[in-house]
Design brief:
87 residues, single chain, 20% strand
């Protein structure tokens, strides 16, 4: 089962998020989908493998904060790998 628990507030209710700035800034967001915690507003990349929360995304994101794989299904997103290897 896909993990859908917010790392920030522990919330479990999410909605589709559109963030043009993040799409322009992070290639893996441009090619993926974002979801937002309804409790605190934290945004996450949706896993293409299971639909769970792949990694949290925020404006000050550093490469060391990005998950290298989905914690629910171990899917590795090639766009995320590229981001980590080039920053």
């Amino acid at each position: 089962m896909a993990d859908k628990t917010c790392d920030v507030c522990g919330g479990t209710s999410f909605q589709l998020a559109h963030d043009e700035w993040m799409k322009r800034t992070f290639r893996f967001v441009e090619n993926g989908q974002l979801t937002m915690c309804q409790g605190c507003g934290a945004k996450y990349l949706v896993c293409k493998g299971c639909g769970g929360l792949y990694t949290r995304v925020h404006p000050g994101l550093e490469s060391w904060e990005v998950n290298t794989e989905c914690k629910s299904c171990n899917y590795k997103d090639p766009d995320v790998d590229f981001y980590i290897s080039t920053t």
